[in-house]
Amino acid sequence: xxxxxxxxxxxxxxxxxxxxxxxxxxxxxxxxxxxxxxxxxxxxxxxxxxxxxxxxxxxxxxxxxxxxxxxxxxxxxxxxxxxxxxxxxxxxxxxxxxxxxxxxxxxxxxxxxxxxxxxxxxxxxxxxxxxxxxxxxxxxxxxxxxxxxxxxxxxxxxxxxxxxxxxxxxxxxxxxxxxxxxxxxxxxxxxxxxxxxxxxxxxxxxxxxxxxxxxxxxxxxxxxxxxxxxxxxxxxxxxxx
Length: 241
Fold this sequence. Notes:
globular; five-stranded parallel β-sheet
């Protein structure tokens, strides 16, 4: 399996695409290769403007099974732009027989009221464009309070916008379940954290071994429960394919 990720820091945080590949391999026993085109604070409009030829080449010639499409989230972009430029990416995907997947992001920690609008936009976009929807924001919302209140586990990085290692574990599990219809093995507790305590984005850890961390069994169990409970992750892949 080959997967292309298009997005920004919500995609590249904590090397999330690599974790997805490892979860998929755990779930299926098959090799999964990932490629990432992600740049800080960039929108799909930017991707299809400044980076158009890179996106075009990768989609049309990369022989990808899936393309994960992640729009700028904090703040949300103009909805008309999201529709226009996501549609262009999806059109290329369909020409290449690649399944497009809309990445539904999560609201900022201090603005949970924004989640309903995010959900509406991405659900509508996926439906109208004939793409799969990865309901990450919905699963994030449903799991967040239980994780925080019962286990003291925070899905957010310290800036209240990006994902922590736990958050990206959840993101990766949603994508794995959507794409494969399965969860990784119950003993899969690995995550990546490329941040350095008390530092901003640069520098980040450059030794992969230093990034590797473990999610507690209790935290992983809660995340698995909320991923499994989401109806779209039970039925959407079968219906789409």
